[in-house]
Amino acid sequence: MFDSAKLPQDMDKKSFHDLEPQLREALLSAQLEAVEKKAFSIMILVDGLDGAGKGEAVARLYDWMDARHLTCNAYGDPMDEARMRPPLWRYWRDLPAKGETAIVFGSWYQQALRDRIYDKIDDAEFNHQMARIRRFEEMLANEGVLLLKFWFLLPKEDQEKRLKQIKKKNAARHVLADWATLKNHAKATDVGEQIILETSKGHAPWFVIPSQNSDYRDAAIGQTLADSIRLKLEDGQHQAVSAPAVVSGLPHRTAVDAIDLTASVSKSDYEEEREKLQQRLSDLSDTKDFAKKGMILVFQGNDAAGKGGAIRRVIRPLDPRIYRVHPISAPSDEEKARPYLWRFWRRMPARGHIAIFDRSWYERVLVERVEGYASHDDWLRAYNEINDFEAELTKFGYVVCKFWLAISAEEQLRRFKAREETVYKQHKITDDDWRNRLKWDDYAVAAGDMIDRTSTHYAPWTLVSAENKRHARLTVLRTICEKVEEAL
């Protein structure tokens, strides 16, 4: 597929000089309209052979575009902060907000590319990694990211000339990756072609750029970028559609309906077992094996089901230096300007630490679904996106425990009233809680679908009967201890 791109693509200086003003105007106009409308963000991946002028091309984009809304992120081998987290974490951390543009050197393709060239992975593993990347890029596109990927190509003889020029300049800022030196030219080209064939999709296309002529190269990138932004601006935005209500008169049983809400524990039994479980958890979190892993705890459930109380019993025996509780509310403007998983990726703990989420990424398929904040297509695709996200977490070594705390509608009403009548608990009850209660059946259906579609073998749901708070707290502590012991 690279054959036509290997042909010389010439542009004389006069032609480029005549074209450049029009190109700059088109590119800057499209960029500034994207900045104003804030309908999507832009990510530009620059990849390909060393010596092909990737840095020069990016420098010219900085000349042509408004640099105030342009960021260049360069990634080499992960440093300590990134090594302590899943591989995709650093890319999620740096996602641009809507209206902004990020240029990416050393993207999520680099490790797979390097490993395949050096035969550290076989075709099966390489294809598996490409499939993961396709799902990742599809999610970015669905979440409002215009993703454009440029592969810079040079014939071997031209690359040799460029590399000699760079060596003669002895420019310290030019770092040549060993996998793309001349001796690996053929293999790098073959693997690059395979990557493009596997991962060039309508929502995340690859553009192969012949780089023998620098003016042609830069004009091709600038024109492609301007046209792509303009097309995206003309696409428009779809409107959110509310989830369908439960059909009146027809029974709709879900997974949460099967929870035995009569389960209870006496106060004396509770105190004794709670102390044992808390000590067990403390001992487990203090081991060398746990320091190599880490843990993610997710708490979801009916309003007033006791998530906060259960969390307090979990953290009581733990060293405060190793955990952090994240109460999740409506996303901020900064968070709404990025894909919905961004705010959770950036909260991922380092190895040996614990992140506790009081509500989580599952709000996409609960509140956002029921209240119509997410379109039908958006919350429906979220099930697979969440499963992929949790697969990344468990593959990295995190222990992932997810709890659904369930109570009856009658018990919820009793707790709501008790909160209103108790001064120090009044802050726990809001108008939103009462409004959500009116949609009890819709939330029950959404919760049942969530559990059915996201309870995987690597991150299963634990359904907790929370009508009796003591029983719920012991169930949570016991489950966490068992999951950690299984993983160590």
Automatic annotation (TrEMBL):
<protein>
    <submittedName>
        <fullName>Polyphosphate:AMP phosphotransferase</fullName>
    </submittedName>
</protein>
<dbReference type="Pfam" id="PF03976">
    <property type="entry name" value="PPK2"/>
</dbReference>
<dbReference type="InterPro" id="IPR022488">
    <property type="entry name" value="PPK2-related"/>
</dbReference>
<keyword id="KW-0175">Coiled coil</keyword>
<dbReference type="GO" id="GO:0006797">
    <property type="term" value="P:polyphosphate metabolic process"/>
</dbReference>
<dbReference type="GO" id="GO:0043751">
    <property type="term" value="F:polyphosphate:AMP phosphotransferase activity"/>
</dbReference>
<dbReference type="InterPro" id="IPR022489">
    <property type="entry name" value="PolyP_AMP_Tfrase"/>
</dbReference>
<dbReference type="InterPro" id="IPR027417">
    <property type="entry name" value="P-loop_NTPase"/>
</dbReference>
<feature type="domain" description="Polyphosphate kinase-2-related">
    <location>
        <begin position="22"/>
        <end position="231"/>
    </location>
</feature>
<keyword id="KW-0808">Transferase</keyword>
<keyword id="KW-0066">ATP synthesis</keyword>
<dbReference type="GO" id="GO:0006754">
    <property type="term" value="P:ATP biosynthetic process"/>
</dbReference>
<feature type="domain" description="Polyphosphate kinase-2-related">
    <location>
        <begin position="265"/>
        <end position="486"/>
    </location>
</feature>
<feature type="coiled-coil region">
    <location>
        <begin position="267"/>
        <end position="294"/>
    </location>
</feature>
